[in-house]
Specification:
The chain contains 13 helices and 14 strands. By secondary structure, it is α/β, with parallel strands linked by helices.
């Protein structure tokens, strides 16, 4: 039998006038969010200070065949709540809508589903407004404690996560990432956002899903270009944090690409490798990202490849993964120029990206105005204390460059160009450009 808690747990110290406040469990309404704090009075009856901490429990789980009728995962979450409000990527709805509707019908759970086009060009505030209309009073009137189900790629997870953050200031959501990027990176990420006019992801809030379900069976229907695109985010964690993951990608990267992570074909061994690669990438990413909720610490290995690319990615109309891999390859060359990384490790990084058709070079790197502007924007975004550019110092470890002078930047670009022209592809990747631009 659980002992009833006292109404409020207060510690009052008259001398320094500190009141600690732990809100009683019986008043708690959220499964996922809790908080406590203290209030300290100065003693002059004119000012006081409040310190509060916010606690979030977020779970990330690899699952198999989430939409199979006999898979209880979603039914267990939604049947007791009496309905499921879902936002689904339009393409995913076309491919899996019948299975999604069939699942909820079979489990007798009313489903209110919005199918939302989520191209990169839709990653704009208007899409967030549209989603808010669906979630809000004139739509489904989602309650503050009702977890919205979001099923789709990274664009949808960013905009729908932001809409959930705005609905009642913080409405929980459950994310099923259906692309590689969304499964291992954008999906569980606390960073929800929309694009600004020139700079990607510039408006948003920190609001991770309370539960991320990763089911690689969705990768079966992805275009191969999108599988490749997502692999850049896996390589990012391999280079900066996990040498075993790096070796797995060297040994199996091409096979995982061809088989869409062992969903088109592949024996039991490849299936296990696919799960291990996904798990390692996720764990490594969330170890750093999930524990640094508000990006107040800049030891962020997952920002590798993302220092200059947010500026040149939209300018060159690159797919996100290719922009990141160009940023990573350039970062490796720069790290070698700075004496941080051996030439052998630099070449391994560039070779791994190239081996699966990711770009490692684009002439836009030579546009110093764009590169320096990207650097300036990034410095501002990361808090003005420095550039904090993660650069590899070996395979599986990195450090952070506080400053990169324009001279060093130029030197790095020249060296990188020289290295890449000798590659069979000249550094170009396969299907490196966005195809959905201009169609919005
Ligand atoms: N918040 C973060 O931390 C974070 C991290 C990484 C990337 N991102 C963002 O994620 C976005 C890229 O995400 P993405 O690569 O998933 O692209 P995406 O969301 O554009 O999806 C790619 C395409 O695949 C389609 N699709 C989705 N699932 C499918 C499936 N199972 N089968 C067939 N088609 C499917 C989509 O409709 C879309 O056309 C970028 O905008 C990037 O900025 C955010």
């Amino acid at each position: 039998m659980v002992q009833a808690k006292p109404l409020t747990e207060k510690t009052i110290s008259q001398s320094n006038q500190i009141i600690q406040f732990n809100h009683p469990v019986k008043y708690r309404t959220s499964e996922w969010y809790t908080g406590h704090g203290e209030i300290v009075a100065s003693g002059d009856n004119r000012s006081f200070e409040v310190s509060a901490s916010y606690h979030l429990k977020a779970t990330v789980k690899l699952v198999n065949q989430i939409l199979n009728l006999d898979n209880p995962t979603l039914a267990e979450i939604y049947s007791s709540r009496g309905r499921c409000v879902a936002i689904v990527d339009q393409t995913v709805d076309e491919l899996y809508g019948e299975a999604i509707r069939g699942y909820f019908e079979y489990h007798e759970i009313p489903l209110e589903l919005l199918s939302c086009r989520a191209w990169e060009s839709d990653k704009i505030p208007q899409t967030v407004h549209k989603l808010l209309a669906f979630l809000g009073k004139d739509g489904c009137d989602v309650s503050r404690n009702e977890p919205v189900l979001v099923i789709g790629g990274g664009v949808l997870s960013d905009v729908a996560g932001l809409a959930c953050a705005l609905q009642h200031r913080r409405t929980p959501y459950i994310m099923i990432g259906t692309t590689v990027v969304a499964a291992i990176d954008a999906g569980p990420s606390p960073r929800t956002c929309t694009n600004g006019s020139q700079f990607k992801n510039s408006m948003g809030v920190y609001h991770p899903p309370v539960l991320t379900l990763v089911d690689r069976t969705f990768f079966r229907t992805l275009e191969t270009g999108h599988v490749r695109n997502g692999m850049a985010e896996i390589i990012k964690m391999a280079v900066t944090d996990d040498p075993i993951l790096f070796k797995l990608m060297e040994d199996y990267g091409s096979r995982l690409l061809e088989t869409h992570f062992a969903t088109l074909e592949g024996d039991e061994e490849l299936q296990e490798i696919a799960d291990e690669v996904i798990y390692r990438a996720l764990f490594s990413y969330m170890k750093h990202e999930g524990t640094n909720m508000f990006e107040t610490y800049q030891d962020r290995p997952h920002a590798y490849g993302h220092t200059w690319s947010p500026r040149f990615e939209p300018a060159a109309k690159l797919m996100h993964g290719h922009a990141v891999s160009i940023g990573m390859a350039f970062g490796a060359t720069l790290a070698t120029e700075m004496g941080w990384l051996s030439a052998d490790d630099r070449d391994r990084i560039i070779a791994l990206c190239s081996s699966i058709g990711l770009s490692v070079y684009h002439p836009i790197l030579e546009d110093m105005d764009i590169m320096l502007e990207g650097q300036k924007n990034m410095r501002r975004k990361r808090g003005e204390g420095g550039l904090w550019a993660p650069l590899p110092i070996g395979i599986g470890e990195c450090d952070y460059a506080q400053e990169v002078s324009s001279g060093l930047l130029q030197q790095g670009v020249e060296k990188h160009k020289q290295l890449c022209v000798s590659l069979p592809s000249g550094g170009e990747g396969k299907e490196m450009y966005l195809s959905d631009l201009g169609l919005a």
